[in-house]
Amino acid sequence: MVSLFTLFITFAKIGLMMFGGGYAMLPILQREIVEDKRWATEEEMNDYFAIGQCTPGIIAVNTATFIGQKQRGIWGGIFATLGVVFPSLVIITILAGLIHNFADLPIVKNAFAGIRVCVCVLIFNAIGKLWRSAMIDRFALLIFCLVFFAALATDFSPVWFILFAALAGVVLKNMGEVKK
Amino acid sequence: MILLQLYYEFFKTGLFSIGGGLATLPFLQDMAVRTGWFTQAELTDMVAVSEATPGPLGVNMATYVGYTTAGLPGAVLATLGLITPAIIIILLIASFLRNYRHNKYVEAVFYGLRPASVALIAVSGFSVAVMTLLNVDSFAASLSLLDLFKWPAVILAVVLLILTRWLKPTKKLHPIVFILASAVVGIVFNFAGV
Questions:
Q1: For residue B163, what pLDDT is reported?
Q2: What is the reported pLDDT for B60?
């Protein structure tokens, strides 16, 4: 059984590598949790991301809670989550005094301009992996296209798209069963 | 008292910011106005810092505001406040899913959610890519295709794509290796132009 300490340390390591914010942690989570530790499947990961997008809180935090809970129940969820925010807590506390200067340093700016390019490529690869577990038939592809273009063209909160997709899933699945 | 207030304010932010990342921004703006704990300028700085350090904006902002208003205990309590609602809600959903994961309707819901989730991630990736690889402004001014692309960034992206997807020896490397290598490339070739 995985110890609470292992959960904390594993997610602290992930928290430390989450450069670039937002979805930049997807490829890191896929690598550490799905491929290395095998604590979740690609499909479960996709489910966690989907839930993370329609519930309060940061997706990395939500995913940590899910995986921790799956391994060691409530305390597992809490320790994994504390782990994922721990590096930020330490780094920002150290930087708090010099925060204005830090982000303006040319070396920091240049480094992160490079990192952003890498994050684009890594997100692209991560989407490829998620794609395989999600696009199981034509209807799934249809939902993808509808949400993709609607989200690109409008400013609606992701919550609405997620609700729409959940409803569409129920309707399409039931239609499929009637046909059989 | 200030510690409780910090916990409470960030608890509210954590409860209402859905979708993560920049979703916390409007709530933080509102908090700046009401409490006077930090200014809009500090918030803007923090958006930049969050892009330049590991860690999500909401967590970084909670830590920073907590630290500047009440020292280390403030930093810890504000951060805990921010993540408490998410932990509670996800633990509830997780225990629900443990019992009902194979229910017909729950499976149907996830069947719909997965492609939608991938689409939302793709949209976000797409907008990062546009910002990072393209010069929309100078293209609009000159209409020359040569000006549309940020060439050094495009070249780095193509190299990374080959290294991460097609070259056997490098494909299996940990993503952090590519992130750090890109940081070095950014510094050496002056990617930000400063």
A1: 93
A2: 85
